[in-house]
Amino acid sequence: RDTECSGDGPGRAAVDFPVAVILPAGGSGERMGLPTPKQFCTILNRPLISYTIQAFERLSWIGTVVVVVAKENHDLMLNIVREFHHTKVKVVHGGTSRHRSVFNGLQAFSNSTDDSLTPKPKVVIIHDAVRPFVEEDLLLKITLAAKEEGASGAIRPLVSTVIATTLEGYLDHSLERAKYRASEMPQGFLYDIIFQAYQLCSEYDFDFGTECLHLALQYCGTNAKLIEGPPTLWKVTYKRDLAAAEAIIKENLSTSACVITEAAAEAVELAGTLQKNLATQGMVLVGVSSPELFLRLDMHLFESSREMKEKVKLNTTKRSFDTQKTDEITTFMRLASEVKQANVQLYGIQIDHTKVSELWERSAARLADITVALIRDRNPALIGQLLQA
Amino acid sequence: RDTECSGDGPGRAAVDFPVAVILPAGGSGERMGLPTPKQFCTILNRPLISYTIQAFERLSWIGTVVVVVAKENHDLMLNIVREFHHTKVKVVHGGTSRHRSVFNGLQAFSNSTDDSLTPKPKVVIIHDAVRPFVEEDLLLKITLAAKEEGASGAIRPLVSTVIATTLEGYLDHSLERAKYRASEMPQGFLYDIIFQAYQLCSEYDFDFGTECLHLALQYCGTNAKLIEGPPTLWKVTYKRDLAAAEAIIKENLSTSACVITEAAAEAVELAGTLQKNLATQGMVLVGVSSPELFLRLDMHLFESSREMKEKVKLNTTKRSFDTQKTDEITTFMRLASEVKQANVQLYGIQIDHTKVSELWERSAARLADITVALIRDRNPALIGQLLQA
Ligand SMILES: [Mg+2]
Ligand SMILES: [Mg+2]
Q1: One domain, residues B206 and B227
Q2: N or C, which end of chain B has less CB nearby within 10 Å?
């Protein structure tokens, strides 16, 4: 699922026409009660919008990603593009409403042969900056349906009954839930259709409309094809959604790991126990090899489909606690702080070397618990700590 | 906001009639992809449903809480009631649909003078087991409106556009978002009205209906009063929602703390720095006092409105790392494991006593970071660890 894989993924064969993306990211953080607009809130040291951009950028069949931001966030956005090495992003200024922002995004493409502009794509995907978990299979369905039908959109079942209210704030009637759907993102359009819809629509539409599919229907007579998406399409809206998104990202990150030990029987046994214990918590160890020196255990999280660069290393030594010198601990903490620059999180876990099998088993179980805790929480405040299994 | 406070809260004066609660909790965990139905999933070692029950039980003006569970979860539910000391709960078996379960709950109350049944309340509140964050002010509004108008319900703005689909899966039309609302929980009813509605409604309603407000309107002609609720009313539905709920509970838990240090200048200074650093992360230290012995720092999380019993203690000693004996660490870990039985999480943080103010400040800042990390994560796998600030 990394960039290399995606190049050979299903999309490459199926999509033989230019596809671009528009990501409106002009929203403010008001609803969350946060000073930072939610698309710029960081999860594991990376802004939410960078995850979303990455979800598109990793697909070889997707071209330009136009990010539409408020003028005051222009520099912030350019910094994110630089820091996270985004290569397909074009930053455009937003308008005073969502529809105006999307239209600004569409105008970043050229209908003419003016070389200073990016040529217009056949299909344009419109998505939200705050829906980071969009997968290739859905994007493919949306894109192909848009090409065929002119417009397409992701839908989800309604989670609550929808009701109409009277002016006085009483129930007027409730809708039969089965007949309606929630309209979500992504949506796809033939570029010419959505561009024409925006050219024809009214000022009222621009200021108060919320639904691009509606514009395509009203102004171009195009009934969008609707495609059911997964629950992970949800929109990160409230502060609690950041915690939910973090949990998903951590889970994606923590599914495989690699352990290196020396050949000693205890080390191999330890790796085996760790493997068994991690497996019960949904993690998999994918390799065990043996360097020399002392009892040592390195844990490396493989880069996931989201291409996170974080790694967790666990270091186990045979030496017992009371012979350890303060300056060794200082050295370890300094090392931890150095490798942190390279996005490696280094923690130490010390395990007593004992022949009493009961104690050894308990320590091995603790080692696994602590390992899982460190990987799951990835807490930078605990980097460089020497823990005891 | 604990039980004592609520006794004198706004509800006590305003509600001079009997109020009961029905909590349908018969759902399965299918949607989450979890083996455990979501209402029984634990957050910080406590099942979700116990938080929800607690939200009602703490209010003195609320009487019986009828929990409607699937037959196979009856014993599980009774165990939860015992373990978390719930005092107002009556467990009833559910039916094959939500409406049947609610009706079973209503039938737990007596219309007659039969002493074996709980007398019927004036107003009954219907809520979801998986919406744990319901506050007294909203419950009060719902209850008083139900008493006045016969029925009332919490609503929220729609987060997505609602669309009608054609049979072939295309967009038919989209609804104007501003005219509709999502119907949420809690809802309130005069007992006689909702009971009558269930007696009159059809088998089709029982099997396919989803909306109690609709039954009250259709069968009793009662237009429910609608009351806007806060976003925290959302329904814990997916696995990610458990992470979101945990984040909210942790945040509620971690808002105040108490530090005890000795009178030494360093200790007082340390407490001051900690206070300042915690404040920037949204935590407040509410007291500093001084016992004797060595440089020591105890951190105690006050019980929040949710009456969680977890506490975090941090212990700081002057002795430096290399003079420490293995058996002292073992003793510390044993102590940690003992107090864990009483729901006290004990971690050690060691800080080097130095006159170099630059080093001291850095250590103090690290102390605060580690403290916040431990409190926020509350990870049981790290209990008994001796960390270095
Ligand atoms: Mg995903
Ligand atoms: Mg709350």
Answers
A1: yes
A2: N
A388 contacts B373? CB cut-off 8 A: no
Q: Say whether both B235 and B282 belong to one domain.
A: no
Residue A243 pLDDT > 60: yes
Those residues with Cβ within 8 angstroms of residue B70's Cβ, 6 or more apart along the chain or in another chain: B26, B28, B93, B94
Between A and B, how many residue pairs show a Cβ–Cβ distance under 8 A? Answer: 210
Which residues neighbour A314 within 8 Å (Cβ) at sequence distance 6 or greater? Answer: A297, A298, A299, A347, A348, A349, A371, A374
d(CA B168, CA A226): 9
Give yes or no: residues A242 and A261 share one domain: no
Domain match, B302 and B383 both: yes
DSSP A228: E
Single residue among A249, A274, A299 that ends a domain in this structure: A249
Would you say A66 and A22 are in contact if contact means Cβ atoms under 8 Å apart?
A: yes
Largest CA-CA distance found in chain A, in angstroms, rounded: 81
- CATH code of the domain in which B226 resides: 3.90.550.10
To the nearest whole angstrom, how far is the Cα of B24 from the nearest Cα of chain A?
Answer: 16
* Model confidence pLDDT, tens digit, residues B88-147: 999 999 999 999 999 999 999 976 666 666 889 999 999 999 999 999 999 999 999 999
**How do residues A64-117 score in pLDDT, each as one tens digit?**
999 999 999 999 999 999 998 899 999 999 999 999 999 999 999 976 666 666
One domain for residues A266 and A245: no
In this prediction, residue A253 carries a pLDDT of 61
For residue B64, CA distances in Å to A126, B59, B124, B358 come to 50, 11, 10, 60
Instruction: Name every chain A residue with its beta carbon within 8 A of the beta carbon of B346.
Output: none
Q: Quick one: how many helices (H) and strands (E) in chain B?
A: 13, 19
Residue A301 has pLDDT above 80, yes or no: no
A192-208, pLDDT tens digit by residue? Answer: 999 999 999 999 999 98
Both B130 and B227 in a single domain? yes
One domain for residues A144 and A272: no
Q: Which domain holds residue B52?
A: 3-249
Last residue of a domain, one of B249, B277, B305: B249
A190: nearest Cα among A138, A144, A129: A144
Ligand number with the minimum distance to the CA of A134: 1
Scanning every residue of chain B, which has its alpha carbon at the shortest distance from the alpha carbon of A153?
Answer: B171
Average pLDDT value for chain A: 78
What's the domain count of chain A?
2
